Structure formats: C-alpha cells, structure tokens
C-alpha cells in the first residue's frame, strides 16, 4: 500500500499512533478526542499528515458529524487511501463515564458508515477495524455489534 489512512475515534487522543506515524507522507491520520483530557496531547498536530479534532467535554454527535464532513472528508478525498485502519474507541459514548463526550449509538453507526463510504470511494472497500475502548459495557456491546454488522454488510 502506498497510502493508508487511520481513523481514530475515541475519548482519548491517539498519541501513540501519532508518535509512530507523524511525518510519514504515506499515512493520513484523522482523529477526534475530548480535550483537555488524558493524555493531554493532540491540540497541535505535529505534522501535516495528522488532522486532530480536539473537542470540549459534552460535545454531541451532531457536532462531530459536522466536523467530520467539513474537515475529514476533504482530506480523505485528497489523500485517496488504499486502506483504512480504524481505531474504534466507543468510550466517547454518552453512557460511558470514562469521559464526558456525548455520542450515541447512532453517531457511531454514522461514523462507521462514513468510513465505509470513504473505503468504497478510495480503497476498494478495504477496512480493518481495531477495538480500542469502551467502559460502559451495555453501550459498548451495542456499538460494537452495530459496527461489526455494518462492516460485514449484515
């Protein structure tokens, strides 16, 4: 692969992934996370291939959707990834008290559908998703089931 995108949705900034990939023009990383919040990083993108969206506590899903459409979509279209890797953190769910973001089951379904649309458009449908987190077990179970069903077109 010559171009790989990483989509990181999580209540925490993906600082480890960013540290590994910053400055590698074969990779585009897009992510949103609550800020300020652990690990207290990500407010300044360290390289042009990083598109961080730090959002305040209590940010709702519709606000995230709007930012994704306005900021991530043009970058993905310009980058044209051949594979999309997803760091799926469902701890941004409003039922999860690990953080204070306010996403719903439907918001995570929308994010998954957005990833799939980007993959169909640019990557011949190639997506690999990795579960990163979620601490409210009922919400986690619902969101993971929906995420997997959408990924598998079930």
Automatic annotation (TrEMBL):
Transmembrane annotation, as ranges: none
GO function terms (MF aspect): histone deacetylase activity; hydrolase activity
Residue intervals of the Histone deacetylase domain: 2-150
InterPro entries documented for this protein: HDACs, His_deacetylse_dom, His_deacetylse_dom_sf, Ureohydrolase_dom_sf
Keyword entries, A-Z: Hydrolase
GO BP: epigenetic regulation of gene expression
Family named by the database record: Belongs to the histone deacetylase family.
Protein name: Histone deacetylase-like amidohydrolase
Species of origin: Paracidovorax wautersii
Taxonomic lineage of the native organism: Bacteria, Pseudomonadati, Pseudomonadota, Betaproteobacteria, Burkholderiales
